[in-house]
User: Fold this.
Amino acid sequence: MFQNNIMSTRPFIIANWKMNLLPDEASQAMNSLVACQKRYSKGLERYSLIVCPSHESISRCNNVLGKKSSPIALGGQDCFWHDKGAFTGEISPISLERLGCTYCILGHSERREILGETDAMIQKKVAHLCAATSLTPIVCVGESRKERNSGRVRSVLKRQLRSALSHVPRRRHVVVAYEPIWAIGARHPITPKECAVALAYIHEQCQGLGIPRMYRAVVYGGSVTHDTVLSFLTKGVSDGVLVGGASSKSAEFHSLLRTIAKIV
Ligand code: PGA
Assistant:
């Protein structure tokens, strides 16, 4: 779906459904999302809408979207660094592609924190995904509250980005999601001003790593709702948003979509 320039595409609205919906609930949510997208299609045409259901729901969601090209793209929430083999419980990047995904979230903080994913593991996942598939990685980075309070935001972002993006081939599109851990599932997101500072630093790092502007998008994630979404999309603060909790509640997500569809 990308042209040569990732930025010639539209701002990203990425829905991370996490493990919030069972397969029948996910296909129901996808059905109503398709209806919502049709209803506000004129306004929503200006965005790239990506939904990342849990793995066991991808196939059903893809069936809802149908074979023809849909304005809603699918993404995985994680995948392994091999395509096949004796890796019990892991997810093949090739299978994601065959199931209809065009994106995949990698390095989400919940995986880093709860499942012990390390920078080295995320590096292998990003490298393999880029080498073996045409999926676009959505690489999550972000600091904890403790790291922020001790003035380590830049050093944490630098370490995570250098590791995750060091084997991205030339001319490969990458989406980086800045998700400060303390702002995920919280009451309030980061302020747009603080967000802009962190995103500018991420852009600087990506540039230094040889990922030119036309091949990268940097989005914000963490407690984005219909009330706050515009503050991250307007005035060029970010190239889009990654929405977690609010995206798996249909009423809330549709109201977010209605909000962004209506801005001129
Ligand atoms: P949240 O999650 O929107 O619920 O804060 C974002 C994420 O974890 O991707």
Remarks:
- The longest strand covers residues 101-106.
- The radius of gyration is 17 Å.
- Residues 12 and 48 are 5 Å apart (CA to CA).
- The chain is about 40% helix and 15% strand.
